Give the backbone structure.
Amino acid sequence: MSFLEVSAPDYLPLAQMRQLQLARLRALAARAYQNVQLYRTRMDERGLGPESLCDPSDLGRFPFTTKADLRDTYPFGLFASPMSEVVRLHASSGTTGKPIVVAYTREDLEVWTNVMVRAFAACGLTHGDVVQNAYGYGLFTGGLGAHYGAEALGATVIPISGGNTDRQIMVLRDFRVTAICCTPSYFIHLVERAGELGVSIRELPLRAGIFGAEPWTDSMRRHIQTEGGIQAFDIYGLSEIVGPGVAIECSCQDGLHIFEDHFYPEIVDPESGEPLPDGAEGELVLTTLSKQAMPMIRYRTRDITRLIAQPCGCGRTLRRMARISRRSDDMFIIRGVNVFPSQIEAALLEVEGTLPHYQIILTRLKGLDAMEVQVEVTPEFFSDKVGAMEGLQERLVDALDHTLGLRVSVRLVEPHTIQRSEGKAKRVIDRREP
Ligand code: DLL
């Protein structure tokens, strides 16, 4: 299939897209009903079936599926295909207990590759690119998802996986890599380590980064683009739906196009579950439209965003979602104030003199919650006089106060004090007793 044909659904007129979605939704509901006990019971309880879907918006009458459902049916209870048709399993570890297991038929893998090809193409990658894939290979979906997509695009893939930073830098330079896939926090670490080794990433042929798997902010993007001399694109996905490739930014870098022909998005109020209109911020709920092995109906992602229906400068008709600002379950409450790590990151990066390496430590002192933000300062600042450090600390406390409406303690730490992650960064350390 030619490249243009692969990307054709990106430009489908709206009415045609809704028609396609409806046909796929009906087939999905039928498949889920026939093959998965949990879906059958829930649809029967509400008297729903494929015929209840006359318009994609009718999906709003269907019950949600949650992470708890995946745990309760661990490991294979939500599979809609016999094991003989399942050709791949991945798993995602949660914060507690057993991982969740996801399955793919051969057709599912083809769809995954298809959306990843379209994703890479959307951020300007072509067959001429040399792609260093530093997402972890294994049960995590990042490695293999990006791998098959980049390969199908015709790019040269370097399956280096995560870790071994010095070798990553050598490969980046010696193999004349033009695009890199990893978490944004790991890329920052790479740039920094390269500096120590006397390698300037800015001077290498590297021109694009496809970053995702964890939340990051626009301030972080500015930092990465300046320090790395590249364009940084945001890619979103989750194991339960497919892995990476649910949505991606295009060259306009203004929201992530959702591959709506395979994933149907809704935004709901995270508290009440009520559907919200395009433009309103809430929890992203996704339904897979073509998944065979593990269909997901109205999966509660816990990711907070909003849908953007306005046309995009790139010409794609796919709706966009705003960068994931936070997860609804990321929130912690300090002295009655709701706090999200992303707000802290944004506030810190607005103040000059700090590095995008930070950690939030939560403790409980005499029954009262306390929060300390530890942030690394630039080497120049660190070697400077104590007075400058104090001034910086005050500016940070003020910036956080301004954003959160809360005065919290800030500890400036030496460069390299905060542990680097090869995959998803751990920003919050909760030392409060349960
Ligand atoms: O992180 C899949 C992936 C791999 C996406 C590589 C992008 C690149 P999980 O491990 O199941 O899958 O984690 C999914 O990570 O619900 C979000 O909370 C978060 N996440 C993923 N991408 C982004 C992003 C992969 N671009 C969970 N921005 C999701 C913010 C993200 N959060």
The domain at 3-329 is CATH 3.40.50.12780 (Rossmann fold). The first strand starts at residue 86 and ends at 92.
